[in-house]
Amino acid sequence: MNVLSDRINNLSESQTIKMAKLGRELAAKGVDVISLSFGEPDFHTPEHIKEAAKQAMDDNFTYYTPVAGYPELRKAIAKKLKDENGLDYDFSEIVVSTGAKQAIANAVLCLVNPGEEVIIPTPYWVSYSEVVKLAEGKSVFIDTTVEQNFKITPEQLEAAITPNAKLFMFSSPSNPTGSVYSREELAGLVKVFERHPHVYILSDEIYEHISYLDEHASIAQFPSLKDRVVIINGFSKSYAMTGWRIGYTASTKELATAFDKLQGQITSGTCSITQRAGTAAYNGGLEAVLQMREEFKKRRDLVYSLLKEIDGLKVNLPDGAFYFFPDVTSFFGKSYNGRTVNDADELAIYILEEAHVAVVGGGSFGDPKSMRLSYAAAEDKLTEAMQRIKKALNQLQ
Prior knowledge:
By secondary structure, the protein is an alpha/beta fold. It has 13 helices and 14 strands. The protein folds into 2 domains: 6-44 and 288-395, Aspartate Aminotransferase, domain 1 (Alpha-Beta Complex), CATH 3.90.1150; 63-284, Aspartate Aminotransferase, domain 2, CATH 3.40.640.10. The mean pLDDT is 96.
């Protein structure tokens, strides 16, 4: 008798979490490990946000919360979407969740029936395809390359859409590549979607404020598609609030009602203290956010210059987020100390054990040719990590 369900047996472990775990285990043995595996800002949460949380506790803001979130927070989110993005949402169309990951799960589970197709450009964030599995949908992948800056073309999108397609999922700025779709590039995709009104769009914009372009473009800003778009966003990346666990969706009232219904049976409302902190974040302006973005940009430029010095890596300059996703195929089949590297996942293990730097192989992102490294770390750590990686890769013959 199989104790566990097929549902959980078919689900893959998150490789980002796995590599971080392996790095911590090695560090526990006294090894100096530099972790570039997690997508987590190394900054502290801004003080005014922490103060709001402390005040919430002092005010005994400690009871059950509405499933979709406090109206005060949802109104702050709607105001942010209007002021920063030019998007009109009523607060009733906002659903606050325990992290953007739950918001994504809400959307996929509420939209996708068993057997329906979900179109996902590769590379993609590791959980996209796994949530589709939980919904019993079918992932349809559109492959991209470093040469095209990991962005799909309208022609690729058109070729991927069938009558059975239900949802298109993507992130911009992207995890794991850092690629950002410009307004003009999105306009090309919009023309395709206009010809296929049965396809909904999940637009993951969690890295919105970590973009080095002049402005953030959302596919929801195109009026012909707005009612088919589910925006995913949150506070973890922009406001250094990963541990607070708070994200949200913006969509139609019909979809918001469905998300509320599903969430009400799984977690109910997000932590009351976290919601007060989130309200303070959105009402407190962007000064701290923009300061962090400038630091990320400096780190990006530093790491790019160091990666370019490593023979065999194919790397592009990402326009957002805090990741590089270099093509590492030139190292496949090479060996060191009797150990042969066959793919990017094996290369990531080699780098961890030989260079003591934790990165993530691209297999779980849908691209076994590449690996992801985060530059959300201090500059001295990044410099040391790149030196270690360069040495380890140069040893492969």
